[in-house]
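I hope you will forgive my troubling you with a question about protein structure. The matter concerns a single protein, recorded as an amino acid sequence and a row of backbone structure tokens. Please examine both parts with care and let me know of anything in them that strikes you as inconsistent. Here, with my thanks, is the record as I have it:
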Amino acid sequence: MEFGPYAPFIVGSYGFAALVLGALALNGWWDGRTQRRALAELQDERGGRS
């Protein structure tokens, strides 16, 4: 497979897209942990699940 003179642009675009998708996945994971922690604190304040 040959990309010709556009190879740096194509590789850079795929790299940037991978970076953005990775950052979105990491942000979702981090936010999920934060939300679970906040929910646990709220449940502790109420005295458990009810």
